[in-house]
Design a protein that fits this description.
three-stranded antiparallel beta sheet, four-stranded antiparallel beta sheet, single chain, alpha+beta, 32% helix
Length: 136
């Protein structure tokens, strides 16, 4: 019986070392992931593109403060651009989900209003270099 107690104490020490190695590896992986995410962080956008029914309604600069009213076939939306960010201030859609989005200001961020078939997206320098494959 004494033999088993000695072995169990040795096994606990080995398990503790392996646990420490595992925790260290997980922490290292977490730090590396955070650094990679910070490196590839999206850049600030330069303009807002508004699409209705998949067609370009207009493109507006993020540098100035303005309000754009879209009164289309499917409904009414009011998009506000201020302090370098855009958001939907008012809409007459039933769920008003588009109004719950946080203001967008980084490249490729979007706000979508499905009932009104409206897409508000931020574009930047990188977006203008190559058109998408659908547009060609």
């Amino acid at each position: 019986m004494r033999f088993f107690l000695i072995n169990s104490r040795v096994d606990k020490k080995i398990i503790q070392k392996k646990d420490c190695i595992l925790i260290g590896a997980v922490l290292l992986l977490t730090v590396l992931t955070a650094l990679i995410a910070a490196f590839f962080q999206r850049s600030a956008g330069q303009s807002v593109r508004i699409l209705t029914d998949g067609k370009l309604y207009g493109e507006y600069s993020l540098s100035g403060n303005q309000t754009i009213v879209i009164d289309g076939l499917h409904g009414y939306n009011r998009v506000v651009i201020e302090n370098g960010a855009a958001y939907v201030e008012d809409a007459d859609c039933p769920d008003k989900y588009c109004m719950k989005y946080k203001p967008i200001s980084k490249g490729n961020e979007t706000i979508v209003c499905l009932p009104h078939r409206l897409v508000v997206e931020v574009t930047g320098k990188a977006d203008r270099q190559q058109p998408d494959s659908v547009a060609q």
